[in-house]
C-alpha cells in the first residue's frame, strides 16, 4: 500500500485529483505490487513563498532499491511539474516504511471500499 501527500500553499491553482491520478499511474506502471494509492492534499493558508511538498510513502521491498527510487522520483517530479501552471518552490520525497509499520484493510459488512480494477 502506498500513500501520497501533497502539502501546498493555497495561492496555487492546482488540480490535485489529476496529480493524484498521474502519480498513482506512474507508481503502478513501475511496480505492479504497489496497490491502491491513498492520496491526500493539504492546502495551507499561512505561508511564506508559494511552494509544494510531495511525500510518497512506500513499503520496503527488495526490488525498491536506489535505482528504482531514483527513476521513480524523476518520473514523478517531471509528471507533476507538467501539470503546474505557476512558478513555485517544489520538493518531493520518497520514503520507505520502517519494519514495524502496519498497513491493511478494514472492511465493514455491507460497505464497499473503492479499489483498483485488476
Poorly predicted regions: none
Helix content: 25-40%
Count the helices. How many? 2
Mean pLDDT: 91
Task: State the major sheet.
Answer: 4 strands, mixed
Strand content: 25-35%
Please give the number of β-strands: 4
Structural class: alpha/beta
Element order, helices and strands?
A: EHEEHE
Tell me the strand order in the biggest sheet: 2-1-3-4
Instruction: Please state the overall shape, judged from the principal axes of the Cα atoms.
Output: globular
Rg over C-alpha atoms, rounded to the nearest angstrom? 15 Å
Instruction: Give the terminus-to-terminus CA distance.
Output: 15 Å
Task: Describe what this molecule looks like in 3D.
By secondary structure, the chain is an alpha/beta fold. The protein is built from 2 helices and 4 strands, in the order βαββαβ. A 4-stranded mixed sheet has the order 2-1-3-4, with helices on one face. Helix 1 links the parallel strand 1 and strand 2 (37-44). Helix 1 (16-30) runs antiparallel to helix 2 (66-81). The protein is globular, with a radius of gyration of 15 Å. The model has no long low-confidence stretch (mean pLDDT 91).
